[in-house]
Each structure stands twice: as C-alpha cells, then as structure tokens.
C-alpha cells in the first residue's frame, strides 16, 4: 500500500461521519478563578457559585484549561449543542516544531525596573513523530465535535498552512459538506528571505471558511475607503448580449457580458456615470470617491501574525476582527478551542461578543488571563486601516476559569501493582493532593497516602506519624498547589524524618496523571523507590516565600497589603539568565532572577471554594517593576480570609492567605 493510499484511508468517508457525536465520556471540571473586578456583597456565602451545571451563566465568559476534545464533549453534554455562532480554529500545523512563550522580566529586585532579561517557557509541541495518520485522526475527532457545537447559521474558520492544508480541506468537505465550503482566504506570513533557498519561500497561510448550512450569517466588512473616483470596465466574465451606449449598439468582448441591464445603463448615462473610454471606446462606469471597498478572500494586506505577547504563533488582532465581524453579531458566542495567547478572546471581548476559550497549555492559560485582565491597556480595534489607533480603555467583562481533567482512578492503578495497603485512601478527585511515603525498611510496607480536601496540615501530620510508626526513613510530598507558609512547617514536622516537598508545575492534566502512573509502576518494580531518571522528569519550580506586610486602621475596615520581600525556601533559585549588555558592563553577565513574580491577584473575602479576582497587578512592557501595595475598604463587620495568588515568570501559581477581622 502506498503512502497516499494509507492517508486516504485515514480520511473520513460519508459512511463513517457521525453527525451525532457520542458524548458519553465524563470529565471532572473544577472552577478555579472568577474574574469580577467590581464590588460585590461582602458576605461570602451569598457570593459562592454553587451549581452542578457550570453553564447556567449570567453572561460570564469561559476559559478552560484542558484537552479540547474532552471539553467539547463536556460542552455538548451540558446543553451547548448548536449554541456557538462562530469557531476560529488555529490548530498545530504538523510542523514537527516546539513553540515557546518569550517575555521580559526585571532581574535584580522587586523595586528595580532598570535591568530586564528574556525568559522563555514551553507553549506547545507540534511533533507527531512524522505520523500524519495520528495528526489527521486528532483533527477529525475535534472537527466533528466543532460541527456539533455550531448553530445552524454558524461558521468555522480553520487556519492552516502548506503542511497538511490540502488533507484538512478534504476532511472538512466530508464533515461539513462540500456544498458548505465558502472560501479559501489567503493571509500573509512574516516575511522571510533565504538566499540559499531551493524552492520559493512560503509567504502565505490559508483559512478555510465553512458554514453549518446554506442559511448562514454573513456580514459585509469594510476593508478601506476609496478617496478618489475612478473609471472601471463594465464587462465581466461570461458571454452576453449587446447593449446600447450613447445610441450605439456595442457587443461585449468575446466570452464577456455587460454587467448592467439596459435600463440601468440608460440611467447611469443620464447621471454621467457611464462613458466610453477615450482611447479604447470601451464602456466604463464611474466608481465614486469616498466609497467603501469590502473584504474579498485576499487578506495579504495585513500580517496574520503578531508578537505583542511573546507567543511564537500569536495571531494578529486585525485578522480576528475581520473574522468575528463577518460571522457573528454582538452577544453571539465565539469559541477558540486552540486559544494560545488569547487573541480570539481579546478581540471578541472588544467587539462585544461572548466567548469560550480552551487550551491544554498551563502557560497559555496564564498568558491569556493576564492579557484579558490588562485589556484596558491594549490598543482599540480600528474600523479601517487608515483610522488612528487609541487605547481600548475598558475593563474586561466577568469570566470564569475552569480546570478540566479526564476521569482517573488512582486506586485502580495502586491495586494493579499491589500497592494498596490498608492505610491508603481509595478515592481520587481533581482536588486530591497525592503524597507518597517511600524508602521504608520493608518494601511490602510501602504507604501510599492521598490527602483529600480539608485540613492539609492535619492530614500531613497524620501521614508523617504513620510513616514514623512504620519505620520509614523519608517522605516525598508531592503537591499540585500548596500554601507558602507550609515550607517551615514541613521542616519542623520532619524532625527525625527527612521530608522533601516536590511542587509540580502542571503543563497539562494528562501529563501530570501520566507521571503519577509512571511513579506507581516504578515503585512496584524498584522496591518502593522512584528512580532518579524519573524524578528528573518532574517539572520542578522554585516556590518562593512571599513576605507580606499587613497594615490596617483601628477597627480594621481599611486594610493595606504590601509585598516586602520574596525569598526562596526549599529548592535552589531559578538558574541564572543572561541579560543585555550595558555601558558599565560590556560583557553579557548572568544574574539570578530575584523577582520571580510576574503578576498577583487578591480576593479580599475568600470563601474557600472559588477565588474571586478583586485586584490584579502585574509587570508590563511599560512597567517592569511589580506594583507592591494594594488597599481595600470593608463595608461590614466580620472575619474575612484574604487570599493572594501569585504567578511567577514561568507561569506557575502559588498562594498566600491570612485571616482579617473587622470590628
């Protein structure tokens, strides 16, 4: 069988395109953040979000961290079938490359904004081991789900390039129907010049425009305003009959026809809007000045790419403005299931649309959140290319961030490898914090403990006591997220027992669960020990200790939180990074990042369930030093939990909380 025949078998046929996609797969979704920057009722129980169906919304937009296939099934199961008006899809292009996020951060201290360096982190991998079948199957599953989510008047815009664009076009014809193909839009890439080229440098991408049905929404979008009038030929392709011009019967050119009826021609002659070309005597009509020229399928007048937020495949806001204006109305729902740096969501927000964004990269979600929270500092969208650009100036609408993970039975995995002792807790949920107790005196007495929701310290204390009673020498604590002040607590708790805390930076829920599985398998094969080679694959992050100073008035109604210092507690600091040359120092020097915080948010009345973002502070292009002080006024008496969430320059988040009483 040839390669072409194998690829043909991977494409869907009419017989196996399932119009009613199965949505039986379950998914655990946890609401982590609510972005609502306006004042709310101070009583925490009145503002808790308690609903099993997360989509009984009051206008909130949605940002999901997880696999888009699972999340699209989740949306279908929760009443979103045929509810989305527009989907823009910018999937991996089958390039075989790895893409990163680059950002500048201050180097020396919290207060120093004079020295900056570039930090690079992983965004996503477009590597399919050169297996096109794997890639096409990946795309087929997701395109079928997208079709089910689109409304009857909805549209899909699929962005791709030369690598697999032709195969995707055939797949789209089958899933959406060839009759629902509307356009191939050509967009411009960033210009590259390779003097040693052996083929033409690739200068364009393609966007395939499909609709759900023949009854679809389509708005004309202005491209430019033509200032000067000019004369244009009146003939068009297709053979036609002669017409009378100025009393003279004139045949159209061979294979052409006159675009207007005789009645319209006569009226235009009376108005002076038709003439015979002085040189060729060919009929022409007048294109008036100050006239709007509308978009066609050639969009090479703009670049499809932008580098405003350091995301290597970030798309231009003007590109998404054209797409969203063409195929949606205000308050319609726009979705991007490969949202990356969040361009689609930001443009939808500026144009008054509701939006849904999904990405499997934790770093992309953090970048998107930061972009949306600082949207007021971004540029306003220009209606025409000649329009002067100003700041957008509006705060983002409320949105929710959901962490979605596939179902996973940790207890079954333990049983499979005979590592299910009487001390282990049998349940596993997305909020579970796994703790492994390793290196016991007897391999058969390995204790695998799960810390569930509740008092983390109490559970940890019980676990350490259990480990000591059974003669264990050390404890490895693996936390997905943990409080900063627990660092010293763990040291004191250890005493005669060695305790190592391993904080995980989650690149994706799937990768994390895979790593857990590998740990359990390794324990079964290596007398309860995790090999050093496997431990090296843990995406460790330095978790700094943030020293917060709290000031308040006599009755506590006004409170001020100040970041005084950031110190490293357990692991060595970030590796030294090179920064740019200066006049004083002509060589490239390496400096540790002693200011790891990229942004921080605060909830003045944390209720223990959902983190409400009431204040947001971050480094930016114009302001390298992080704002360090924030003040809040309480309106009611009571005891409040103040919780801050910090995001470091690599996208990892960590928290700090304390109680505050208003008398």
In short:
The chain is of the alpha+beta class. 21% of the residues lie in helices and 31% in strands.
Proportion of residues in extended strands = 25-35%
Number of strands: 35
Task: Indicate the percent of residues in helices.
Answer: 10-25%
**What is the alpha-carbon Rg in Å?**
30 Å
Task: Give the integer mean of the pLDDT values.
Answer: 74
In this structure, how is the largest beta sheet organized?
A: 11 strands, mixed
* N- and C-termini, Cα separation: 80 Å
Biggest sheet: strand arrangement? 18-7-8-6-3-19-20-2-21-1-31
Shape: elongated
The total of helices stands at 13
Structural class: alpha+beta
**Which ranges are low-confidence, i.e. pLDDT below 50, for 5 or more consecutive residues?**
3-20, 38-52, 417-454, 478-487, 502-512, 538-542, 569-593
Describe the structure.
With 663 residues, the chain is α+β, with helices and mostly antiparallel strands. The protein is built from 13 helices and 35 strands. An eleven-stranded mixed β-sheet has the order 18-7-8-6-3-19-20-2-21-1-31, with helices on both faces. A four-stranded mixed β-sheet has the order 23-22-24-25, covered by helices on one side. Helix 3 (132-149) runs parallel beside helix 4. The radius of gyration is 30 Å and the shape is elongated.
Task: Map the helices and strands.
Layout: H1 3-10, E1 28-35, E2 61-65, H2 68-77, E3 84-89, E4 98-106, E5 116-125, H3 132-149, E6 150-160, H4 165-176, E7 181-188, E8 204-211, E9 222-226, E10 230-233, E11 235-237, E12 243-245, E13 248-250, E14 256-258, H5 262-270, E15 274-276, E16 283-287, E17 291-294, E18 298-303, H6 317-327, E19 333-336, H7 343-350, E20 354-359, H8 362-373, E21 399-405, H9 410-416, E22 433-437, E23 447-451, H10 456-469, E24 474-479, H11 486-494, E25 498-503, H12 509-525, H13 532-535, E26 544-552, E27 558-568, E28 577-578, E29 590-591, E30 597-603, E31 611-613, E32 615-618, E33 629-633, E34 638-648, E35 653-662
Parallel strand pairs: 1-31, 2-20, 2-21, 3-6, 3-19, 7-18, 19-20, 24-25
Antiparallel strand pairs: 1-21, 4-5, 6-8, 7-8, 9-17, 10-16, 11-14, 12-13, 15-16, 22-23, 22-24, 26-27, 27-33, 28-29, 30-32, 30-34, 34-35
